[in-house]
Specification:
It is a single chain. By secondary structure, this protein is α/β, with parallel strands linked by helices. The protein has a domain at 2-144: 3-Layer(aba) Sandwich (Rossmann fold), CATH 3.40.50. The protein has six helices and nine strands, in the order βαβαββαβββααββα. It has helices at residues 14-27, 48-54, 77-87, 127-140, 158-167, 195-210, and strands at 2-7, 32-36, 59-63, 67-71, 92-96, 104-107, 116-119, 184-186, 189-191.
Length: 236
């Protein structure tokens, strides 16, 4: 799952560019997700779900033709990305905002940092420029980095890999420690797993589950296993 952030000052076309990038990626056959940063609440006060929230519910979920969750307080970007990565097998996630994130960025203004790969004028962009931009995104964006510094990518550490990926170094292909096969979260904090531990956990859990009569519960062919362990020893 590659991640690209669209950043810039107010009224410079960030949302417009996000929709253009998403449409172009989808037309190329990719599965795409988006995350928007907002300084304000996502207000649905006139709907039933808003009434649930106003009544005091800390988490409100809606499901039907669509599924969504709202909850008090923000979540760290990495946690949201991890949830998206686990829920759906996405090829790209396009962020709107998140200037301080350490992912490849497209700027719609004069904003620049070490992760910025292009500055564009959205309102004057031609179709061929958009296609070139999406090609650049495909080449230089990358997924969640676990910062294990395992050197399997051929670089001394994860920061070097990211730096070279942003610059377009063709030898910086992908982080070989990246994997969404096994995700560990402890008290909402994602914990990186090295390849040995990830493989051990995966094979152990798979072996245990395959020994169970899951077919009796309609889960004979499973693609994803979710295990939640809650430690309540300190609770009254």
């Amino acid at each position: 799952m590659k991640i690209i952030a669209v950043v810039g000052t107010k009224n410079t076309g960030k949302t417009t560019l996000v929709t253009k990038i998403v449409k172009e990626l989808v037309e190329r056959g990719f599965e795409v997700g988006t995350i928007k940063y907002s300084h304000h609440s996502f207000d649905m006060s006139d709907r039933d779900t808003g009434k649930h929230k106003n009544a005091g519910a800390s988490i409100v979920a809606g499901t039907g033709k669509e599924t969504f969750f709202t909850m008090d307080g923000g979540m760290e970007l990495e946690n949201v990305l991890s949830m998206m990565e686990f829920i759906k097998n996405l090829d790209f996630v396009v962020l709107e905002g998140f200037k301080s994130s350490k992912y490849a960025k497209i700027s719609t203004s004069d904003f620049n940092d070490e992760f910025t790969i292009a500055n564009v004028n959205v309102f004057e962009m031609e179709l061929n420029e958009l296609k070139s931009l999406v090609h650049l995104i495909s080449e230089r964006s990358f997924g969640m980095i676990k910062y294990l510094n395992c050197k399997k990518c051929g670089f001394d550490n994860c920061d070097d890999f990211v730096n070279q990926k942003i610059k377009g170094n063709q030898s910086a292909i992908h982080c070989k420690s990246e994997s969404d096969e096994v995700l560990l979260k402890i008290d909402n904090q994602m914990i990186p797993l090295n390849p040995f531990v990830r493989s051990f956990v995966k094979e152990t859990i798979l072996g245990m589950v395959k020994s169970l009569k899951t077919d009796e519960f309609g889960a004979s062919d499973f693609e994803k296993i979710e295990l939640l362990i809650r430690d309540d020893h300190d609770r009254n």
